[in-house]
Fold:
Amino acid sequence: EITKYMLDLLGSVPDLDAFFRALLKTLAEEGESHAAGVWLINEDKQSCDFWMAHLFGEVFNDTNLGPTYFPRMAMAQFLFDYKEGWEQTIEYRSDDVRLPELVRQFNSENGLYSTLVAPLILGGKNLGWINLCVAEEPEGGSWWRIALVEAIARHAALALHKSRIYEQKRAEERRKTILEERNRLARDIHDTLAQGFGAILMQLQAAQREGTLPAQAARNIDIAVDLARTHMVEARRSVGALR
Structure:
């Protein structure tokens, strides 16, 4: 059911942000919970940041969630540092001593019983984590919620990976377009400005060789020769820089 839902969602909501908004809403509702969130590892693999959360019926991201409403920085640091959670789903009770004090305090104030955290693993690579906060002790155990979180985490990791590949391809296409435009500009500069200055310089030097010009005119031509030579060198430097 999760696979069918995720495929339908990917087909109807191509935007990654909207996809995860719908995904977290579904996770919170199906998991009979009030909160679910996503945390992503940075591209430099040196830290983890909060990205999005479904809290008490409303979706927040890193731009509209107040700095004190949820201790996201403390949780992000904990997820990144706690290596046991990089490869397996872990359930934390609200007062679990492994959790940061700010997170335990938030859990207590909001009546949360436990938090399930699953890594977003694809091809042996961890992209981040998805979590589900449970408000009361589950009857019959947490096994079905763990299965739900892990199933969604696998599909979420795939969607995130595909989106990043698409963005990388778009960035590469933009880079190629920029390089092509630079090369075109370089050719235009070489074919017009540089050659034009070269032709002007040749004409001025020919005038200098006449030797019958008034003194003031000769000085003006000397200045024009220097200017033409200087700008021709600059045009060639511009061509090299663009290439």
Notes: The radius of gyration is 32 Å. Strands lie at 35-41, 48-55, 58-61, 90-93, 114-122, 125-134. The chain has a mean pLDDT of 83.
